[in-house]
Amino acid sequence: MSDAFAHLSAADRARAATLAETFRGLGAEEPEAWALSEVEDGIPQLARFLLLRSVWRSAEQWKSPPAEWFGEQEGLDEDADEADDPGRAEDAEPAFLAAQQAVQRILAAGVDPGDLKEIARAVFLHTAFDAVHTVDEGHDPEAGDGLPGWLLIELDAEFTTTGRAMVGLNEDLLTTEP
Question: How far, in Å, are 32, 105, 124, 132 from residue 119 at the CA level?
Answer without folding.
Answer: 34, 16, 9, 20
